[in-house]
Design goal:
By secondary structure, this protein is mainly α. The protein folds into 2 domains: about 35 residues, Irregular (CD2-Gal4); about 260 residues, no CATH class. The protein contains 13 helices and 6 strands. The strands form 3 sheets. Strands 1-2 form a two-stranded antiparallel sheet. Strands 3-4 form a two-stranded antiparallel ribbon. Helix 6 packs antiparallel against helix 7. The longest helix has 30 residues. GO terms for molecular function: DNA binding; DNA-binding transcription factor activity, RNA polymerase II-specific; zinc ion binding.
Amino acid sequence: MFSSRISLRRSCQSCAKHKRRCDQRLPQCTRCATRGTPCEYINTPWAVEKRSNRPPASVKATSSMNLPLHLEIIKTFDGTIIRFLVDSMRTFPVTFAQQMKTLFIHPDLYRSSPHLAPIQEIHTVCKSYQSNVYSPRLFGILRQKAVQIHRCATRASSFEELLFCVQALILAHCILAFDEHENSQYSEATSTMLTNLALKLWHQAPIQLPHAMSARRAWLFAESVRRTIIIAYMLCSVYSFGKRSFSVRTPFVDALPFDVRTSLWDEPTDSGWEEKARHAPVAMVSLREYSDMLESGRVHGISFFGSLILAACKGLPAEKVAFPPVQGYRDISL
């Protein structure tokens, strides 16, 4: 039977096993370093490079900072890739208006939630926007709604409410950042606000999900958190590309956990989900590792989500991937 205990735990496995407090330092927490025991994490971001007990020669060792996750690396992409990313971001509000679902928002999570007001409100605006008729009044309402949802996010009473607020804000700013009439309404302050909320999501994510959740719903919840953080950072990066033709690569995002079983997102039933999951054991990698897999052609059947990640992380279109022999594929099509 597939376990319904899906954890968003950030403690290392050793501290969790022995029920000890973990300070979550990388590459090893203090307890594991003192005891000389292996220190492995499940959901905490991986170090970008291979773990080592010694810091790089060019980086001064410090016990209070995780330096690799705070670095930013300038990246520039071809104009075709930037246009693909911008156009893709613009599809999110329209897709949500039509299906009540996107790559990072799943309807099965909010239909029975008492905190779905931000989702409902942004859906109404997205439905008006999909008509493709420019309306200053509509964009005025959207800007006002974005301010209200941000205010709601800052005083969210639960993690679920915070998650829905961030998702609604992403949809709002996919319109404000990339519509040809309104791109001036998005600013660097907006990027900072979104990345700060994404970090808040990560730090406040529950360490254990309720047993009452089905395995599928628990996975969708954890996956929604991961995808929302990834898309929030991607939105900020794509805006930077469109505005200045360059962006930065943040190792924190590269190191985020990523579940390669992306097709489970679209499985509509609990029984079908459990059947697929039973034949595809949990396969968590970092987002950086997944983009490396995509680039090297080791993912069979690159989805739209995969194409976005490949473009945003590597600056490559999916059609340019050179696939190795069949035995080299990582088949996630299930």
